[in-house]
Amino acid sequence: VWNQVTHLYNRYIRPQIIRWRLGDEVTIRGVTIVTNGVYMDSTIREYLYTGEYEADEASAIDSYLLPEMDVVDFGACLGFTACFTNKRLDSTSKHIAVEPNPQVQEALKATRKRNNCEFDIVQKAYARGDGSIEIYPADSPWSASQYRPDTTPVSVETVSLATLIEEYSLSNLAIIIDIEGAEA
After folding, report:
1. Which of 20, 28, 62, 87 has an alpha carbon 20 to 30 Å from 174's alpha carbon atom?
2. Element at 179 (helix H, strand E)
3. Taking the model in full, what pTM does it have?
4. What is the residue-level pLDDT of the chain in tens, covering all 184 positions?
5. Which whole-number Å values give the CA distances from 65 to 27, 61, 69, 87, in the listed order?
6. Which residues lie across from 131 on neighbouring strands?
7. Is 157 helix (H, G, I), strand (E, B) or coil?
């Protein structure tokens, strides 16, 4: 019986409590993430609630990013890694956040503004060449994909790393790739 009660609590009650307690924004490691208007599955909400959201990414950024580096952040999503990174860069560093998913663009922009961060947002998908692809947005910001056609596709322009390096005159480059392995 206890296992059934625990299962029911974790499946139905805990997600509602987390949804209520998160509100429109949550602060993790000094970065306030704007969540208002973004549908998030229970996994993302759980990570936000517990403060574990992008914990490994934050640790890697703290360990390896040098303040004078230019940065391209592929998979900016809600803006946590972009803002976490931006707060660690010198004012002369160039920082570009690449995010193709149209469903998270407003949250990404709001998170950037809320944290007074200065990085450019490029609403394109990474590809070896410039052009366009179709992506399939999903219920979760983590789950937009080029390969899972379970929703109506959205055409998104693509951009190559070479194009970004040239357009922004990037050097001493750090590349953050955070697409959860979904496109592997």
Report:
1. 28
2. none
3. 0.82
4. 777 777 665 665 655 555 555 567 888 999 998 887 776 777 777 788 788 888 999 999 999 999 999 999 999 988 999 999 999 999 989 999 999 988 889 889 999 999 999 999 999 998 888 899 888 877 666 667 777 767 788 899 999 999 999 999 999 999 998 876 555 5
5. 21, 5, 7, 11
6. 158
7. strand
